[in-house]
Write a structure and sequence with these properties.
CATH topology of the largest domain: Rossmann fold
Structural class: alpha/beta
Pfam family, one: RrnaAD
Family: Belongs to the class I-like SAM-binding methyltransferase superfamily. rRNA adenine N(6)-methyltransferase family.
Keywords: Methyltransferase, RNA-binding, rRNA processing, S-adenosyl-L-methionine, Transferase
GO molecular function, one term: rRNA (adenine-N6,N6-)-dimethyltransferase activity
Number of domains: 2
Strand order of the largest sheet: 4-3-2-5-6-9-7
Organism: Gossypium raimondii
Order of helices and strands: HHEHEHEHEEHEHHEEEHHHHHH
Oligomer: single chain
Distance between the termini: 65 Å
Largest sheet: 7 strands, mixed
CATH architecture of the largest domain: 3-Layer(aba) Sandwich
Length: 393
């Protein structure tokens, strides 16, 4: 009787065991996706989980928490090489995991600041870096990257959790810390949106707001098979470089303006600004802003349609109903003609936001502001440090 199938199977699993042993990593992926919730993970009992970890000398990686570790050394080396790290640089790494990229960054930079929310990862990271004799150059911050204030850094190099891509990029490019570049491994679809240009089907508000303050360069695609555990999507590496000079525009005003324009990006600007609700909101803001200039407000301020996406055009809040009742039809019509007149005279009435460049959008916003039409009533200097106010998508 032949036992070859059994021998092949035994040899196959022996290879898997050896490879995992070399990585010092065992993986049990979660079956859920979306926002991480510890109650959704297997082995809810901490004692049971700790017992298993002690027995098997491993810990779990959760897809739902964005824990996908890049294991391909060739790709890791390429990321470090394209980052152009100087021996005197301090590199910020967000989500270092078990340190596959961290060790290579420490070999190239003077210092690495790693922000990691998972204490288990931090323990493994410290142990691994110490084994390489690089612990003096590593500063680990065990906190949520979206809540912690970053120390000074020169570069960002990171395989970031996909779930925080947009707010994290906002925190970086609109933050207080100046830096040369950010080399980021992102979900491929998200990277395409970030790289989109006017006329592209993926062109969106994300690209518009990032390109206002930074340039984005595509580096390479990375297959999902290069990660452990394997995600459902491929990835891409991009480099974001802050522009040396920023446009002379109030960022709060720009943010509210682009939100209005891209609520329905394939709708003409004329159709968007002719809506009764939008005209009423802009008229209300025009009056509020005028009053604020004469008498700085001490109470609540109003903002132009903070969450407007074009879906609730016929729904009025109590405040809007009150304002509408005190506004005559003649006043509304005159203000609407003023808006349409600006769009028509400047040639934007029939244009769609998805095909308009940043330069043209800046020009249109300037024309509106010069005519006393505003999208945000806080008339103040640019606030690059307010990451939440600069949220992109």
């Amino acid at each position: 009787m032949l036992f070859k199938p059994k021998s092949v199977r035994t040899h196959f699993f022996g290879l898997i065991f050896f490879q995992n042993y070399k990585r010092n990593l065992w993986v049990k992926p979660s079956h859920r996706y979306g926002k991480y919730n510890e109650e959704d993970d297997d082995d809810k009992d901490p004692k049971l989980r700790n017992t298993k970890e002690n027995q098997l000398d491993h810990f779990y990686l959760y897809k739902s928490k964005g824990q996908h570790l890049l294991t391909n050394t060739r790709i890791l080396d390429a990321i470090v090489r394209r980052s152009n790290i100087k021996p005197t640089d301090t590199v910020l790494e967000i989500g270092p995991g078990t340190g596959n990229l961290t060790v290579k960054l420490l070999e190239a930079a003077e210092k690495v600041v790693a922000v990691e929310i998972d204490k288990r990862m931090v323990d493994v990271l410290h142990k691994r870096v110490a084994e390489n004799g690089l612990q003096e150059r590593l500063n680990v911050i065990c906190k949520d990257a979206m809540k912690v204030e970053f120390p000074q850094f020169d570069l960002v190099v990171a395989n970031i959790p996909y779930g925080i891509s947009s707010p994290l990029i906002a925190k970086l490019v609109y933050g207080r810390n100046p830096f040369r570049s950010a080399t980021l491994l992102l979900q491929k679809e998200f990277a395409r949106r970030l790289l989109a240009e006017p006329g592209d089907s993926e062109f969106n508000r994300l690209a518009v707001n990032v390109n206002l303050v930074a340039d984005v360069e595509f580096v390479m695609d990375v297959s999902k098979r290069e990660f452990l555990p394997c995600p459902k999507v491929d990835s891409s590496v991009v480099i974001i470089r802050p522009k040396p000079e920023l446009p002379d525009v109030n960022l709060n005003e720009w943010r509210a303006f682009t939100r209005t324009c891209f609520g329905k990006k394939n709708k003409t600007l004329g159709a968007t600004f002719k809506q009764k609700k939008k005209v009423m909101q802009l008229l209300k803001l025009a009056k509020t802003t005028s009053l604020n200039k004469e008498n700085p407000p001490t109470g609540n301020n109003y903002e132009c349609d903070e969450s407007y996406d074009g879906k609730y055009e016929d729904e009025d809040t109590d405040g809007e109903e009150c304002f509408a009742s005190s506004t005559s039809d003649l006043e509304m019509n005159l203000f609407k003609e003023k808006i349409v007149g600006i769009l028509r005279k400047s040639g934007f009435e029939d244009k769609r936001p998805s095909k308009v460049s940043n330069e043209d959008l800046l020009h249109l916003l300037s024309l509106f502001n010069q005519a006393g039409i505003y999208f945000h009533d806080h008339i103040k200097p640019n606030d690059l440090g307010n990451a939440n106010a600069a949220y992109l998508s």
